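User: I'm curious whether this sequence folds into something compact or stays loose and floppy. Could you predict its structure so I can see for myself?
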Amino acid sequence: MKHIVVLTGAGMSAESGLKTFRDADGLWEGHDVLEVASPEGFAANPELVLDFYNQRRRQLLEAGPNSAHIQLADLERLFKVTIITQNVDDLHERAGSSQVYHLHGELFKVRSTFDETDIKVWKKDLLLGETCEKGYQLRPHIVWFGEAVPMMEKAIDICQTADRLIIIGTSLQVYPAASLMNYVSSSTKIYYIDPKPSLNSHINFTVINETATIGLKKLKKIL
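Assistant: Here's the prediction. I'll summarize afterward.
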């Protein structure tokens, strides 16, 4: 059975009503990203950061998977499919995908500021003063700027076993995630679905200039 590896970014969830990571002006929901997505930002104003993610969490509770998420889940009937996502939402899982790895953390989880392996499922607001069992403040289980990406080595291993790589809804500008396409075999066919692709087609690399939902419909005919 062919192994299809899928790398997804913010464009994957945009059609579910979730905004892409940052707008053209460099802001995320009106905030400088370093204010709400860095250890320094959290240290300077933890209440602002917690409130920011509380709002994102509430938004995610109201969102649902779109047809692109469902199409990827349906591919499991024909192929072995592994999804590596830069997204912190759970829409792949809700659509039915069984193998999903989150490079940048998960919005519905929190962790101890003392022990990063002390992780809890969390779907309500997180407030200042809410702590782990050892008394340390809980924080969003999100990989912020300047922090290591714990799942990166696993993601590289997965990419090295890919028969096909599908890249959906990512600018390929955020590292180290953008480097993953370099770890597939030279014979592996790569398909890049994005309405504003940052790369052009070349040998073994096909660009589908569409949104995730339309692009996947076209790609399924090719596969």
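Summary: The mean pLDDT is 91. Residues 69 and 92 are 6 Å apart (CA to CA).
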